[in-house]
Amino acid sequence: MDQIGLIDSINNAVELITRGRIGLRTEGKTEQGRIDFHDGILLAMELYTQAYNENDLFCMLLCENTFLVKDLEGARPKETAAIKSYETALMEYDDAFNCLDLIEKPEEYKQATAIVSHAPPFRYREMPKDGFVVAMAGHPTRLKNGMTAIGMDPDEQDLREFRMKVCKRALDVYFQKQKAILQKKH
Fold it and tell me: What are phi and psi of 123, to 5 degrees?
């Protein structure tokens, strides 16, 4: 997937969803709001589905990171818990991008993970719980908590559920990369 095109497309999807939400609450703009909202949901589903089907870790991470940035930008100042959650997630995603870069360098990754404790709290499926694992394992809870909003559109719920599925797929694909590097005999 083209990274710049992906960023533009996911930004477009989020902008359509946001504009749609505003339109749905504005007298005289309800119909256009409904169209924009559903177009944004469809575009986001298309992008996530493509990343999911291609097992493209970078694109999965980039889609979710872009959504988080837009969610943070759209948060109202009084939504302090949501803002803190988005900021925490974005820090975790920064770490996840670093881990994704490092895992492409097997010897460096192996050395870096050698300092991670072997105690269970620091492991995920017996592999190091690094920044990528922390970001992707924790994010579905954040998505699920957001689904408790009263009156959430069923299509938006479907998108959130698929985003949770994408996080799980990303963890599975990443785990296989970890396993291939760390269990390889020399």
Answer: -125, 150
pLDDT digits (tens, 9 = 90+) for 88-139: 999 999 999 999 999 999 999 999 998 888 898 899 888 999 999 999 999 9
CB 72 within 8 A of CB 87: yes
Q: What are the tokens at 120?
A: 């269970």
Terminal Cα-to-Cα distance of the chain (whole angstroms) = 34
φ/ψ of 115, rounded to 5, equals -90, 0
Tokens of 52: 């999911």
Phi, then psi, of 131 in degrees rounded to 5: -60, -35
Residues 6 or more apart whose Cβ sits within 8 Å of residue 119: none
Alpha carbon distances (Å) from 5 to 10, 17, 54, 181: 9, 18, 16, 31
Residue that the structure tokens 């709290």 belong to: 121
Report pTM: 0.88
